[in-house]
Amino acid sequence: MLELRTLSKCFGGVQAVRDVSFAIEPGEIRGLIGPNGAGKSTLVNLISGLLRPTGGEIVLDGRSMTGLRADQCARNGIARTFQNLRLFSSLTVEQNIDVARQAGHDPALIDAALVEFGLTRHLARPAGALAYGDQRRLEIVRALALAPKLLMLDEPAAGMNEEETAALGQSLEWVRDAADCALLVIDHDLKFIMTLCHRIAVMDMGAVIASGDPAEIARNPEVIRAYLGDAGGDDAPQPTELVH
After folding, report:
1. CA–CA gap between residue 76 and residue 5 (Å, rounded)
2. How far is it, in rounded angstroms, from Cα 202 to Cα 38?
3. Cα(199)–Cα(89) distance, rounded to whole angstroms?
4. How many CB atoms lie within 10 A of CB 202?
5. What keywords sit in the KW lines (predicted)?
6. Is residue 97 part of a domain?
7. Which domain, by its residues, includes 52?
């Protein structure tokens, strides 16, 4: 579905993304983790067309997306949410979704998604008046209204409690099945990522340092050094905690 070929991005003398190559299969839920500043959000910005790569290629479903604008990427099947919410806060929930729904092709899917994410009772409310978790869920449904082939979620579980996070994971599995799209999920909640994702890529200093299933990632010494060690000391999550 998605293939990245030695993708790179430089900001002046800083190389934020370095020769990143991996593929996401149709229907896959891929996790992307790494310490702060590893280049995860920059990578998503490159894939979604918000940034132009310095080098390399982005291929979606056999077609090059390299250098396309964000609106062109969206129309070709790449949708995303943001680490910092970007809703139209003064518009209602329904109006937020209608902005994206015009480009989509399956109104019945969005109606079902509103039910799945518990938003039907909020359709007439301004998006800015929703609880934080509902705003996160609204942003996901709005992205889904674009009828994407690839849905990228940047910190979708941020600010959610354990119960909300578990429900979100179930809803994202529903999205994968109902919308027939692949997902790329960035999140700092490692248990959420390890439970949800089929495979995980780990970034550090702009490069992918490991890729594999959750059990492989949890045992990888480079991951432990670069990512888990950042949590610090005896309270740092241990690899076995991330698998179970």
Report:
1. 19
2. 9
3. 34
4. 23
5. ATP-binding, Nucleotide-binding, Transport
6. yes
7. 2-228
CATH number at residue 193: 3.40.50.300
DSSP string covering 130-181: S-HHHHHHHHHHHHHTT--SEEEEESTTTT--HHHHHHHHHHHHHHHHHHT-
Distance CA 61, CA 148 (A): 12
DSSP state of 118: T
Q: Are 219 and 239 in contact (CB under 8 A)?
A: yes
Q: Which of 198, 174, 181, 5 is nearest to 76 (CA)?
A: 181
Instruction: Answer for the pair 67, 7: CB distance below 8 angstroms, yes or no.
Output: no
Task: Please tell me whether residue 15 adopts helix, strand or coil conformation.
Answer: strand
Q: Examine residue 235 and state whether it is found in any structural domain, yes or no.
A: no
- Asked if residue 210 lies in contact with residue 201, where contact means CB atoms within 8 angstroms, the answer is yes
Tell me: the pLDDT tens digits for 40-68? 999 999 999 999 999 999 999 999 999 99
The residue among 107, 108, 106, 87 whose CA lies nearest residue 96 is 87
Point out which residues pair with 211 in neighbouring strands: 201
Q: Is 243 contained in some domain?
A: no
- Asked if 123 and 92 touch (Cβ cutoff 8 Å), the reply is yes
pLDDT of residue 231: 45
- Condensed to tens digits (0 to 9), the pLDDT of residues 172-224 reads 999 999 998 999 999 999 999 999 999 999 999 999 999 999 999 999 999 98
Amino acid identity of 4? Answer: L
